[in-house]
Amino acid sequence: MREELLEQLEEWHEEDEFLEIVNAVQDIPADSRDYVLINHLGRALNNLERYEEAVEQFLTVEEEGKDDPLWHYRIGLAYYYLEQYEDARTAFETADRLEPGDEDTQEFLGWIQSKTAEKPAEEEVPSAPESPVEHLHLSITDTESTDFWDDSNEALEKWVLPSPTEEQIESVEERLVFKLPRAYVDMMKVHNGGVPHYRYIPVSEAGAAEKKLIEISGMLGIGQEKKHSLCGEEGSRFIIEQGGYPEIGVVLCKCPSDSEIIMLDYRASDNAGEPEVVHVDKEDNYKITWLAPDFDTFVRSLVAEDNHRPNIDGPI
């Protein structure tokens, strides 16, 4: 009976049915829940963003978990998202000591360091790319313009979906566990995914005379019908899980290289907040490079390969 329950809990976890796990474990009397069940419950609560409850559960088995790196990792994750960074640091450092070299643990330690370190000198702080189109009075919700989208036959076939309904938007957000930025949703209602004409974003690098250009190959639309969509066969969850990318949000754009992606980064907000936009490079130890404070700024910062965007009159 117990083995069947544990198998069911793992199956629900794989299917992202975290509430089912919580309900099943909480149906068991508290004095009958052992270490394994409490860890299933705490993990599910973390995935449901109920971090305070997760910490409470993990602390009930603190003594049993003191030599378990996974226990320290999971409670550290809860502390991190509660912004209790010193408690999180202690937990992740213990996890790293018990199981040296775990990439996820070291990644969280890096994020904690960036959250708690003193702000670097001004010349070293990445600055938002200068927008070459600020004066154009562009509106990303005005749509039929081909100035922004490259609607080739291939792009239309592989990337572009019908305008999403409110029900589809809610369904996708529920599956991703993140609320999509309003500006992105508005844009997708007009042109749902695709390949932009302007596929490069300039990035300032400390000590570099010229800005580096990061290229995208296409922007994922809202839906699941095509593999290049947020919940498609090769959508956000697939890319993150297959590539081992950090669990910081939602994949927004693919890049020509399979080792690079553009993500909506929710670390500085909650899952329903306004995400920043970042570039993640798997080949460079999953280096995260800040690109823009929000989706709207990111779109307006895209340029052609020659770092130029023509003076167009009209919407993107």
From TrEMBL:
Residue stretches making up the Knr4/Smi1-like domain: 163-301
Alphabetized SUPFAM superfamilies for the sequence: SMI1/KNR4-like, TPR-like
PROSITE patterns referenced in this protein's UniProt entry, alphabetically: TPR
SMART domains given in the database record: SMI1_KNR4, TPR
Gene3D superfamilies named in the record: SMI1/KNR4-like, Tetratricopeptide repeat domain
InterPro entries hit by this protein: Knr4/Smi1-like_dom, Knr4/Smi1-like_sf, TPR-like_helical_dom_sf, TPR_2, TPR_rpt
TPR repeat start and end residues: 69-102
Record key words, sorted: Repeat, TPR repeat
Protein name: SMI1/KNR4 family protein
Natural source organism: Paenibacillus xylanilyticus
Organism taxonomic ancestry: Bacteria, Bacillati, Bacillota, Bacilli, Bacillales
